[in-house]
Amino acid sequence: MKKKRELKLFGFALQKCGFILTLLFLFSFFTIKAQDRLEVGLMAGTSYYLGDLNPQKQFYKPSLAYGGVARYVLTDRFAVKGSAALMNIKGEESYNGTSFPNGNGNYSFKRSIGDVALQMEFNFRSYDHPFIKTTTFTPYVSFGVGTTIYQRISSDFENSSEQMVFILSLPIGVGFKYKINKWIRVGAEWSFRKTFVDDLDIRIRRNIPFEGTDDPYGFEGGTTVHNNDLYSFAGVMVTFSMFRRKTECKSGY
């Protein structure tokens, strides 16, 4: 059952990302100077959660994350990156001494989420310039917009059903990439997804130790624990150049 849910989430993520990746491919294919500008590959690493049960600890209960990535190179300094991934997050009250208001210290959750993002990358140094052979590596920063896909538990105590939702997320990260040869690139990235919801850590309705529908998650009443949830991805990626660059003319890039 859990595997089917994960595959469904990843499928939704791929569907949402498919339009973006198709545009990147078509744009690179039909642009005159598109040779060697489109990269497609895989990403894998770990994901973790930051929220009410973990306000600040990095790499808290890391879990598996994997997906696909495509990058369209604009210049040797800028690129546009699209990605679709399945990430897993989890947490518990007893792990670091943080508790839900009025909780009993026993609450825990595990969740699979789909992540789709479109980001701009800025390279700190010239990277993969077609006529400068030494531009084989660079650190970079990335930022953009995305969507998080997950099963939201109903806040109605009479209805414990789940509904798949798509919410806004703002990804921002840092990374390093290296060009192995004219076909293969590798990289490492650490990024955060800022969301505008506070229920990523609400997984099972019957386990929530609160009563009343006015405050179904128990966050009100003057608590300072309440904040919007974040999650993070740290991992590596391998991409493959889809077109071989033509280098007859050095008049521009």
UniProtKB/TrEMBL annotation:
Transmembrane segments: none annotated. Residues 20-245 form the DUF6089 domain. SUPFAM superfamilies: OMPA-like (SSF56925). Signal peptide: none annotated. Gene3D superfamilies: 2.40.160.20. It holds the Pfam family DUF6089. This is Porin family protein. It comes from Plebeiibacterium sediminum.
